[in-house]
């Protein structure tokens, strides 16, 4: 009898795996607190890799993996990390993870690794990763940190995929390499060279931010 | 929380050892797979210059390479160098030697009908880093059968387009000789150029400097292979 009471108490005390607060950790960065459009972080890679959807897709996965695992590792060590060298500790963890991702891509996805070339190693300098470690993982439990990493990763992913979609469509006339305009019978559809250059990414990104802020009513303080 | 200096130094040292160990472990563990990937990629590029292999399995690619490719090495005077394995020649390392001393590999491809074509590896400088390629010529030693190119660090979406079929296909059918003069093939500036000659291909907008590198590479290496082509392919 006493045992059952105890377990009931434990259950009551533990927060459900997908409580409202935890759901908010994941969904917030998708829109209301998006790392790219609201926090304006990670812009450089959003410009660089988004000329085509395929490398963008791999980049999105790579960044999400790095954010989730560095968040998890830092969160596990958060009480051990000396405060005075915490930034360099975070950097070392990120750099190690990025190098691992790079090595694995080179070994098993050589074509993709060639396409992304230097941008994989540049994940190290992606401010989103470090921003999440400093702002969240240093002060929260591992599971919450993983959720936060997933949220930020997906928030980053959907924006760069959206940018890449428009850039590849209007810049190269294709989606994932599939020639769309030829397929619908418009082989002469004029392509916009501006979309292939980083300028095109700024414009698409600007339009996305405009639409999003008009919709959510977000105003910078 | 303020930790002692000893703790901080100890933490940093321990972390360095753990992370460094992890990285070297991964590097050693993945080395074989990476080497294989690079080797397969080189063979894919060599074969990609003459035939479409995009739907072949890795095993099949190695088989085609072993049965239908015959490699040998020449010098810039067109003389064969004996005792050197063509697929072991590092074109990038040869690139740094004086032209007269360079070993120039040639891969002769025989298709299933018995027609021969010649694949010539080349190397050069792109905008940011090295570029290289394999130019395949028909048995007349003049008409381009195909080209495959690759690079270390050209800009994705701009210069890196030299790896795409869409750009490489522009070379197919072009000629490198005009009469007996070697004129090479020039990639133009800008995209959608009209009325291209036999020695011109359309450019890549936003990547003119990479295109210049490609042009230089073709011109240089064709001049090195010229003696071999005249001696052994055109008149041989």
UniProtKB/TrEMBL annotation, chain A:
Localization per record: Cell membrane; Endomembrane system
Keyword annotations: Cell inner membrane, Cell membrane, Ion transport, Membrane, NAD, Sodium, Sodium transport, Translocase, Transmembrane, Transmembrane helix, Transport, Ubiquinone
GO molecular function: oxidoreductase activity, acting on NAD(P)H, quinone or similar compound as acceptor
Membrane topology, as annotated: Multi-pass membrane protein
GO cellular component: endomembrane system; plasma membrane
Source species, domain of life: Bacteria
Keyword hit for Ribonucleoprotein: no
Enzyme Commission no: 7.2.1.1
Classification via InterPro entries: NqrD, NqrDE/RnfAE
Reactions listed under catalytic activity: a ubiquinone + n Na(+)(in) + NADH + H(+) = a ubiquinol + n Na(+)(out) + NAD(+)
Transmembrane annotation, as ranges: 57-76, 88-109, 115-133, 145-166, 189-211
One of the protein's GO biological processes: sodium ion transport
NCBIfam families: nqrD (TIGR01939), PRK09292.1 (NF006777)
Family listed: Belongs to the NqrDE/RnfAE family.
Its biological purpose: NQR complex catalyzes the reduction of ubiquinone-1 to ubiquinol by two successive reactions, coupled with the transport of Na(+) ions from the cytoplasm to the periplasm. NqrA to NqrE are probably involved in the second step, the conversion of ubisemiquinone to ubiquinol.
Subunit annotation: Composed of six subunits; NqrA, NqrB, NqrC, NqrD, NqrE and NqrF.
Protein name in the entry: Na(+)-translocating NADH-quinone reductase subunit D
Source organism: Persicobacter diffluens
Recorded name of the encoding gene: nqrD
UniProtKB/TrEMBL annotation, chain B:
Annotated ranges, domain FMN-binding: 126-225
Cofactor(s) it depends on: FMN
Modified residues (FMN phosphoryl threonine): 208
Protein name: Na(+)-translocating NADH-quinone reductase subunit C
Major location (coarse): membrane
UniProt-listed Pfam families: FMN_bind (PF04205)
GO terms under cellular component: plasma membrane
Complex formation: Composed of six subunits; NqrA, NqrB, NqrC, NqrD, NqrE and NqrF.
Transmembrane segments: 6-30
Record GO terms (molecular function): FMN binding; oxidoreductase activity, acting on NAD(P)H, quinone or similar compound as acceptor
């Amino acid at each position: 009898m006493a045992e059952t009471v105890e377990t009931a108490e434990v259950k009551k005390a533990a927060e459900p795996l997908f409580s409202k607060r935890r759901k908010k950790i994941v969904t917030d960065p998708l829109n209301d607190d998006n790392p790219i459009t609201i926090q304006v972080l990670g812009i450089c890679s959003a410009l660089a890799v988004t000329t085509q959807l395929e490398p963008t897709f791999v980049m999105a996965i790579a960044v999400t993996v790095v954010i989730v695992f560095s968040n998890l590792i830092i969160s596990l060590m958060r009480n051990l990390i000396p405060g005075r060298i915490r930034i360099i500790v975070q950097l070392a963890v990120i750099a190690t993870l990025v190098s691992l991702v790079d090595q694995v891509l080179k070994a098993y996805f050589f074509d993709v690794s060639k396409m992304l070339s230097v941008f994989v190693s540049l994940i190290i300098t992606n401010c989103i990763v470090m921003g999440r470690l400093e702002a969240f993982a240093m002060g929260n439990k591992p599971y919450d940190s993983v959720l936060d990493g997933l949220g930020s990763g997906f928030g980053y992913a959907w924006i760069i995929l959206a940018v890449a979609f428009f850039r590849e469509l209007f810049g190269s006339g294709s989606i994932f390499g599939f020639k769309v305009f030829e397929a619908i019978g418009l082989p002469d559809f004029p392509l916009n060279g501006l979309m292939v250059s980083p300028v095109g990414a700024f414009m698409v990104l600007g339009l996305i931010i405009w639409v999003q802020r008009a919709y959510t009513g977000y105003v910078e303080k | 929380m303020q930790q002692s200096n000893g703790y901080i130094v100890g933490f940093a040292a321990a972390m360095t050892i753990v992370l460094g160990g992890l990285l070297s472990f991964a590097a050693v563990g993945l080395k074989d797979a990476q080497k294989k990937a690079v080797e397969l990629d080189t063979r894919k590029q060599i074969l990609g210059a003459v035939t479409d292999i995009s739907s072949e399995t890795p095993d099949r690619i190695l088989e085609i390479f072993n049965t239908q490719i015959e490699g040998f090495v020449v010098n810039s005077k067109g003389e064969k160098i004996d005792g050197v394995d063509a697929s072991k020649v590092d074109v990038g390392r040869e690139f740094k030697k004086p032209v007269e001393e360079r070993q120039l590999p040639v891969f002769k491809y025989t298709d299933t009908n018995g027609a021969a074509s010649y694949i010539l590896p080349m190397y050069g400088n792109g905008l940011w880093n090295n570029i290289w390629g394999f130019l395949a010529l028909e048995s007349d030693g003049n008409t381009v059968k195909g080209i495959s190119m690759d690079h270390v660090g050209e800009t994705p979406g701009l210069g890196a387009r030299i790896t795409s079929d869409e750009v490489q296909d522009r070379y197919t059918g072009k000629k490198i000789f005009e009469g007996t003069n070697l004129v090479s093939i020039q990639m133009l500036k800008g995209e959608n150029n009209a009325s291209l000659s036999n020695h011109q291909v359309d450019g890549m907008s936003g990547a003119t400097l990479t295109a210049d590198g490609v042009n230089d590479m073709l011109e240089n290496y064709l001049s090195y292979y010229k003696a071999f082509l005249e001696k052994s392919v055109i008149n041989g």
